[in-house]
């Protein structure tokens, strides 16, 4: 068996085309979706992520602002800036690029964002809505994973889904989204004693731990769907995921590549959340 690829690049193009059309409709009513991106410090990876997000906004017709601050900014100064953005009618979404410098409490900063502008889906109000199955903004990476499963018409009801990783950003919300679609969900992590025994039962596996070759071919049953959220570099410096792609692709029915898989979908779902925030404010 050779697995079919779920291309996040191609799926993103399709979704962004639709977003662009909806932005044009909004603009005819005098509304331009606005996203404010806050970057603190000079983390090279964060700078790349932020540039990609701002570029994506411009491509679909959003208004975007990049507010870059030195790592020496105080927490109170950062919070004051967020409060100002909360009141700015041109801004419908606020994104604080993580990680933040150690002297700043990231949780306090995220909670300062108006929940109506929490397009990253990290606010406790967004998390609570997800737990209770209420409308809200879903964290962008697991949201993108769900769209990828939807794109192949994968029926989650009654299926066994295994999530490897328990972060607040991916693992936990991913499990909740799968549960919301009536999958039977198992969460595995660093303290799981026999990971292979669990993954071999899975119909779908989502891997999000940030470590090369966490999932290998002998851990996957024939025909399973594998979503690789990881982003690493191998010994040769090439981008790779958490999954042994070459081996697992010979066992799985569908698999996401790295790069070109989940990564593009994360930014696309950020655009989707921001569009919805603008629509809710001006159409409701």
List keywords for this structure.
284 residues; alpha/beta; Rossmann fold; six-stranded parallel sheet; globular
Describe the structure.
The chain contains ten helices and eleven strands. It has 284 residues and is α/β, with parallel strands linked by helices. Strand 2 (34-40), helix 2 and strand 3 (63-69) form a beta-alpha-beta unit. Helix 2 (44-60) crosses helix 10 (262-283) and helix 6 (140-151) packs across helix 7. It is globular, with a radius of gyration of 19 Å. The chain starts with a strand and ends with a helix.
Topology diagram in text:
Elements: E1 4-5, H1 8-27, E2 34-40, H2 44-60, E3 63-69, H3 75-87, E4 93-96, H4 106-112, H5 124-132, H6 140-151, E5 160-164, H7 171-180, E6 184-188, H8 195-199, E7 204-207, E8 225-228, E9 232-233, E10 239-240, H9 245-248, E11 254-255, H10 262-283
Parallel strand pairs: 1-11, 2-3, 2-4, 5-6, 5-7, 7-8, 8-11
Antiparallel strand pairs: 9-10
Helix pairs in contact: 1-10, 2-10, 6-7, 6-10
